[in-house]
Design a protein that fits this description.
Helix content is about 70%, strand content about 0%. It is mostly helical and about 80 residues long.
Length: about 80
């Protein structure tokens, strides 16, 4: 159970990125982070603050709750 939310956010970020045909580097630039940091986020290795989740969600135009939702993947594929 510990770390599940990190993995969910990471998985949802990856789904969003791939659905838009963005490379990890282009997506990291869009969000304003380094590519290696984005890789850590997508793998669920980085512990984001709620403020960071809100900031990233705002930059990509999605509700922060969608990024934290284990079923958010379906909404992000659009």
């Amino acid at each position: 159970m510990e770390g599940d939310l990190q993995k969910t956010v990471g998985r949802n970020l990856r789904v969003y990125r791939q659905a838009r045909g963005l490379s990890q580097e282009a997506f990291a630039d869009l969000v304003g982070v380094h590519r290696t940091y984005m890789g850590g986020l997508e793998r669920g290795e980085r512990n984001l603050t709620l403020r960071s989740v809100e900031r990233i969600a705002g930059q990509i135009g999605v509700d922060p709750l969608v990024l934290m939702d284990s079923k958010g993947e379906k909404r992000l594929r659009r």
